Amino acid sequence: MVQGTLPAEARISGLDPISLVQHASGPVLVVLCILMMCSVAVWVIWLLKALQLGRLRNAQHSFERAAETIERPDDLVAAALRHRTAPGARVVLELAKRHDAGAPGASLLLAVAKRAIATEQQKASSLMPSLSSIASASPFIGLFGTVVGIINAFELIGIAKSASLPVVAPAIGEALFATAVGLFAAIPATIGYNFVDKRIGDLIEEITASAEAWVEIMAGRAVAGVRTRPGGGGEPTVGAGE
User: Structural domain boundaries of the chain?
Assistant: First the structure.
C-alpha cells in the first residue's frame, strides 16, 4: 500500500504496460505475475491437448479402418495389438482379458467396455481441470488486483490532497491493467476448454459407438488363438500359428 510521501508512481507520465508493471505496488505485482503465469499455462495446456488428441484420433481412425471388416474375435484382438496406441484398441484388449477369464455374455462384456471407455476418457481429460480452474479463477484474481489498485488511488489522493489525474492515473492504470491481464488469461482458457472438451466428447462417442460391435464380435465365439502373456500383467496376445 501507499505510505509516507507521494511515491514515484504519481509522477509517471507514461502508462504503458511495462511502466505499470515496473511501478506496480506489491500486491498488484504479485497478482500480475500469477495471471501472466496462468496465461502462459493456458497456451501450453492447449498445445499439449491439441497434440495429444491429434495422436489419439489418428490412432483411433487407423484402428477403426483395420477393424471395420473383422468378424472373428482373434482377428479383432490381433488388430488391437497392432494398434495398441488407439483408445479403442485398449478397450478391445480389456474385453479380451475378460473373455480369457471365462465365457461372459454380451451384457458383461458391455459393462467391461464401458469401464474401459471411462478410463480412456479420464486419460484424455488430463489437464482439463487446470484449464477450467484458470478460466474461472483468473477474472477474480484480476479483480483483486483492481481493488488493490483503487485503494492505492485513494491513498494517493489523501497524500497529495488532490484528485487530479496525474495523481490517480498510475494507480487507476495498474488497477485496470490487472483486470485486463485477468481477462487475457480467462478468455483463451474458456475457449480452449470448450474446444478441447468438444473434441474429447467426439472421440469418446466414436469409441462408444464402435464398442457395441466389438462386444458382439467378442461374445459371438471364443477367442481362438488368444492367450494371456506369461508375466505380462494379464495382457492378451495372439497365439503362435496365426
Answer: 16-225
